[in-house]
What does this fold into?
Amino acid sequence: MTITLLLVGKTDNAQLQNLAAEYQNRLSHFVNYKVDVIPDLKKTKNMDIALQKEKEGELILKKISTSDFLVLLDDKGAEFTSLKFSDWIQKRMNSGLKQLVFVVGGPYGFSEAVYKRVNQKVSLSKMTFSHQMIRLFFTEQLYRAFSILNNLPYHHE
It folds into this structure.
């Protein structure tokens, strides 16, 4: 299985990039994990929010194939403990799934077209975090899930 984190907008904070890269490197021992960044839209200052979400949605959907299992990282999604998330990942792997794609949307969320395509929504927290921090938090939680599945001493319950 390949797990992709699809992001709208780049992370320009070098410290966050380095930390996320550390967990991405650790994940490479367990799963094919990649990060795909959709560049920020240009000239959004005077753009209507609905139009911005629609344009970002079009870019997201261009990156998704019909066979991908699409998961939106969305504050209205299902919440998991780290153990439950590792179980959820294991079930996706056991199902024979080839591509699992997690998406972090733009600053205003997702378009209706993206919501119609989604297979599941997952929330990392009820709190709001910057898109730059979500990349780190998600990558760490994914590594934690694989460390649980592989009985490594990383996670303590």
